[in-house]
Structure formats: structure tokens, C-alpha cells
Amino acid sequence: MQQVHILIPNDQLLLITTGWTFPWAITAVRGTHYCLRKIDYPHIWRLLKEEKVTHFNAAPTVNTMLCSDKNAERLDHPVRVTVAASPPSGHLFEMMTNLNLHPVHVYGLTETYGPITKGYVMPSWDDLPPSEKYARMARQGHGFLTSQAVRVIKTDQPEGVIVDVEKNGKEIGEIVFTGNICAKGYYKDPEATRKLWLGGVSHSGDLAVWHPDGAVQILDRAKDIIISGEFSAIR
Hints:
- With 235 residues, the chain is of the alpha+beta class.
- The chain is 24% helix and 22% strand.
- The protein has 2 domains: 10-144 and 224-234, Rossmann fold (3-Layer(aba) Sandwich); 151-221, Luciferase, domain 3.
- It has helices spanning 13-19, 22-28, 41-50, 60-68, 90-98, 130-137, 190-196; strands at residues 55-58, 79-83, 101-109, 114-118, 142-143, 151-153, 173-177, 202-210, 216-221, 231-234.
- The strands form 2 sheets. Strands 5-4-3-2-1-10 form a 6-stranded mixed sheet. Strands 6-7-8-9 form a 4-stranded antiparallel sheet, with no helix packed on it.
- It starts with 12 loop residues before the first helix and ends with a strand.
């Protein structure tokens, strides 16, 4: 039976439980939850090493500090790490992988339940130079099967007109979503709802490019406050 640890600071508890949905999922598989009052990197490393934690979630800033902690060392077992919030770098993913922390890169907004894309790592990338491989891993990726394809649209069109950018990894546009995990609107705020769904797509406010393989890559975040301190873990 898989045992599960959820480690999060108190002030992030509501955010994690309503966004990441791990408490319900882990309870469904009869896992065990643990909570930390604060992010404590030495304690996290102790749990990873001694309690054999196999999965955890953390924002890029937390992962950066975790990899830089004096207790950091390559684990004897692989750990899957869901990485989300501010856009991560390829360098961070390389550091994590060298410690046997394997990134599962996802991206989304409150208006998309939380994650709505995943960066899928292709086996062929193992033949690329490491810098190129990890740069591709840092892209926000493709839409979930539970949503429709994520798109990047031109920002210089009349209001409500939706035109996709070229899938060349160069033309910058806005990420938009559709699908049944997108919010229908804002509570008692019809004007904000109208702006959210201009042209029949849910607007992220995030600027990105669209690569030939269909993966999106954020260049700037214009809408959301970037979350820098967030951690949860499972075993």
C-alpha cells in the first residue's frame, strides 16, 4: 500500500488543497498526510532519505533552494516532483535530475482548476545535448487529455478575434484555453467574465511562443501573482 505525505506550510494549506487536489486523491488511495508549519529544507531532505518519499510538489523557487541546501545529495531512489507556479529553468531541471528528483512540469491558473498542461519528456531527447534537453523540459508543454488543445493567439487583433500565432517558437502571443476544466466565469462579475472569455476562449494573460511540436513556452506572466513558496510531498 502506498503511503502518502503532504508537507505544506500552514498559510499555503487552502491553496494546495483546493488547487492541487492531492489531499482528496491521496485519501482515495488510503494514504497518510503530514503537514509542516514552514518549509524546512533539512527536514525535507531527511524525509526524502529516511521515509523514502517518492513524490512531492514544489514551486521552482522551493526546488532551487532544496537543491542548494547543504543536505542535498543524490537519492538512492527516484522521486517524481510536480513543478508548477513560476516558469522553471532548464538549469533547475538539470540540478534536480542529478539528485534523482525527476520533474513533472505542469502549468495552469486558478481559472483552469490548476494544472492544465504538462511537459511531456520524449525518449528522443536523450540524444540531445543536455542543455537542449533540459530547455525543452522547461517548456509548459501540451494540454491535458481532460481539456482541449492549448493555443497561443495573436495579441494585435480586434477584441474577440482569435487568430493563432505561427508554430515556429518565435512569434509571441497569449496562451488561451478551452475545455471542461476551465472556469465558466467569475462570481458576480459579468464584466471580468466577458473579458476572460473573449472570442470563446479562456484568456491566461500569459505571453508565450508555440513550438512546431505543439508545446507552448511562457516568456512572461502578465496576469497571475507568481507563487514562490509552496511544497507538498507524498510517499
